């Protein structure tokens, strides 16, 4: 596996997927997680709901496609 170190804004990158490191209590409170919450409100609501009903657990993934989002930033 090759690792490439890059600088810049991940939200402005040309990557197909970006990852939000989060906890499992439904809070996107600071740092990069907060920026995901600010830019993608629908992601936050889905994540919070999945945490509340105990679907989202440690080491699990939740995929989100912002192009289908109701809220546009």
The overall pLDDT average reads: 83
Q: pLDDT below 50 for ≥5 consecutive residues: which ranges?
A: none
Order of H and E elements? HH
**Share of residues in strands:** under 5%
Largest sheet: none
Please report the distance between the alpha carbons of the first and last residues. 34 Å
Summary keywords:
73 residues, mainly alpha
Could you explain the architecture of this structure?
By secondary structure, the protein is mainly alpha-helical. 29% of the residues lie in helices and 0% in strands. The protein has 2 helices and no strands. It has helices at residues 31-39, 41-52. Helix 1 (31-39) packs across helix 2 (41-52). The chain is globular.
List the helices and strands and how they pair.
Blueprint: H1 31-39, H2 41-52
Give a short overview.
The chain has two helices and no strands. With 73 residues, the chain is mostly helical.
